[in-house]
Give the backbone structure.
Amino acid sequence: MAAKGKISVMFLLAAITLVFLFPREGLAVDYSITDVRIDAHLLPNGNVEVNETHTYNFDGEFNGITRMLVPKEGTSIGEFEAAENGENLRVEKEDDLYLVHRKGEDEQITVSLGYTIENGVDVYSDVAEFYWPFFDDRNESSYENLTVTILPPEETTDVLGFGYDEAFQTEMILSDGKVVFELGEVPAGENGDIRVAYDATLFPSASLTASKPMRTEIIKAQQDLLDEAAARVETQQTLSTIAKVGVPILAILLFGLMLLTYLRYKMKKAAVEREAADTFFVPEQVMSLPATIYFTNGASQSAEAMAAALMDLVRQGYVSQVSNTQFKINSHNEKGLKHHERMLISFLFYTVGKEGQFSFNDLSAYIKNKANHQTYHSNEVKWMQAVASEVKEKGLYEKNKGYRWTLAVISLLLLPVIILFATYDLIGWFLAGGVLFLTAIFYAIFYKPKTWIGLKIIHDWGLLKERFKGLTGEEWQGLSKDEQMRAYIYGIGIKNKGIVEKNEELVKSFQTPLKYQFKNTGAYTPADIAAFTYFGPLASSSFHNANQTSQSSISSSTSTSTGGGGVGGGGGGSGAF
């Protein structure tokens, strides 16, 4: 707890420091950009004078607005200034980010920006073009209504104009040569380059970019966009037709298969239930108790399962109780040990404990050392895997790899089509196909029907949990000592308070308080339910605490990075601080 407290204090101090050092990043500003007007005046010398008006609605306090202007290769941004109602505002520049200072709270403001794009027009032997990204995928804000107007040096009728991405088919060429791009709403993180070309003679004082004709290439680029759009519409219609037929058919087939397997399972389960005895019984042991706990507990192991495994070693006689909290290995009786039992003995009695001796105090001392946490966790995981291996070896699940792989392959074949649905904006079919794909994949992964024996184990131990709370003293006394101990160990392993508390109640009712007498050799024999009800809770809490402590010191972290840009590496966006 002390370590966690130190980390929390350090994190808080770091956060406060970041807020003071970088207030724009540390403080969130709530705003919307309701209207943006951009007028780009192309000058005869190839420069471009840009005037922008940005209307912001702020909710809460703010310090100003930001405008990122990343110039294309070969160009630069100069003479940036900002004003509101004719009054200049202070501007601060950080690389390609301009910060316009204007404090306020809960208000709408309209800020005018002006700057020059030097060498913004590319001049060729026949045409001059302005190809520019006023925003790109680095833009952090959405524009609710964006209009971009390109103005030539003088009136002309010889104009080419079109846009890419968000600007596609938004252009309108006016009779005087102006080109207006009515983009409307533009989401954050989107590109929208605009491209306009005029006769080269309108730029007599501009430097020649390349002595070659460019008109044909620009016209071809525009036609390619139109062809791509037409092909996209055609493909979209084809995919929609396929989806209307294919998705429902696949859904019917999949859910039909699921229904058949469910009905088959219900019939098999009903047959198992018919064979079960009506009176209380402790199920026969088909496999070890740790494996039984794992199998009947949803293929998962709790920290208490290790405590149950230790108690089961005592029950079987492989381990003897030396005192109330101490145990030792019976070296003469190790031949019948399973692999996971050997692993547990090796770890508890020779790593945590010493020379075949183990106590709960040893476990507490071992886990207090942080250097042991990873080792404890690693051994715990390996032990659980060994227990799972015993379950696997018992063949409690039906072998149906072919059926599951068929489902998986069909699902994977569906994946490219789903991606195409998203690519071509068929959102409804994308969602329907996605649900179908995930259902099929999860079904293929988790469909593992149990065999007759597997279902019987689940059913019988489920009856134990259900009936144990109502067990009478007479019924309990009718059980053998081994059955009493197995039931109690099972309750510990699955953390079932009903079984544990009922056992303790019955022990107190039928036995006098225990006075443990230990031999000089250090062995308490024989193991019985009374001893279990005494050290069982100690074992459960000891292993639970060890698990929680080791888990708390194991963590990991990840990091990611992103990038982007518009035409020629240029672009930009808007924001506030």
The domain at 23-213 is CATH 2.60.40 (Immunoglobulin-like). Residues 319 and 480 are 20 Å apart (CA to CA). The two ends are 38 Å apart (CA to CA).
